[in-house]
Write a structure and sequence with these properties.
The protein is mostly helical. The chain folds into two domains: 116 residues, Orthogonal Bundle (Cyclin A, domain 1), CATH 1.10.472.10; 112 residues, Orthogonal Bundle (Cyclin A, domain 1), CATH 1.10.472. 64% of the residues lie in helices and 0% in strands. The protein contains twelve helices and no strands. The protein is globular and about 50 Å long. The relative contact order is 0.11.
């Protein structure tokens, strides 16, 4: 299940820049509260699916949120809370409860329980959907040697960079996962695709190359200073975009 990049025209107060800022904020919270990588991917998926169904009205920005509208921020962080309840329940310190405290401190008068209920109803309680993170983990487990940690690490980095790019919603989650693997393989000096990947993913190289090019076209132009500090593959990605 995926959300095509069409809903922005029905959100008069939302732009691709604002969506990217929301995703960046969720990424920061995911790291701050030590949530699973899959939690971030699911939260962004829930956010896109909700915004494709319901129009969010605008309010005034507050405090530390800068230019991010607090109504959109409330929806985004509540999506992260829902995803965390589903995927982080095995962690002893219950990170989703820390998110509750964060949300109430951010928007004390909102009653985020109402926002959570509205999101669940809008999505018909269909929460645990296959995301690009899930496909990536499965494909890596099946088709990549477990000792090849570099490919897995770089594939996850590329995949996380795709989350804030609105136009990449035109691709299925499985396609984004495969495109990220292909890029990671090239970064690590491997062939673009393998027989094992073709067998397990049901995609051939010619189907995935356009996806990888599209990923590189936005990721290489939108990499932040934080990305450059946290990964040494950024220069390679920029070179790949010029040559792929």
């Amino acid at each position: 299940m995926s959300t095509r990049p069409l809903y922005m025209e029905f959100q008069p107060h939302l732009s691709t820049y604002t969506r990217a800022s929301l995703v960046r904020h969720l990424s920061e919270l995911q790291q701050r509260f030590h949530l699973a990588p899959e939690t971030l991917g699911l939260a962004v998926g829930l956010l896109d699916r909700f915004l494709a169904r319901k129009t969010v009205t605008k309010s005034k920005p507050v405090g530390v949120t800068g230019t991010i509208d607090r109504n959109f921020l409330l929806v985004a962080v509540t999506c992260l809370f829902i995803a965390s309840k589903l995927l982080d329940f095995r962690q002893e310190f219950r990170p989703h409860m820390r998110l509750v405290e964060y949300i109430r401190g951010l928007h004390p008068e909102s009653g985020f329980e109402m926002t959570e209920r509205a999101i669940l109803i809008a999505l018909d309680f269909r929460i645990n959907i296959p995301t690009s993170h899930i496909f990536l983990r499965i494909f890596l487990d099946l088709a990549v040697c477990e000792s090849d940690e570099c490919v897995a690490r770089d594939a996850y980095f590329v995949l996380n960079c795709t989350l804030g790019r609105y136009h990449l919603l035109e691709y299925l989650p499985s396609e984004i996962a495969c495109g990220s693997i292909l890029i990671a393989r090239l970064v690590n000096g491997l062939s673009e695709w393998s027989d094992a990947l073709a067998a397990y993913t049901k995609y051939n190289k010619d189907e995935i190359l356009p996806v990888s090019r599209s990923i590189l076209s936005t990721v290489s132009r939108g990499i932040t200073m934080s990305d450059r500090m946290n990964s040494n593959i950024v220069p390679t990605l920029e070179c790949l975009y010029a040559s792929l």
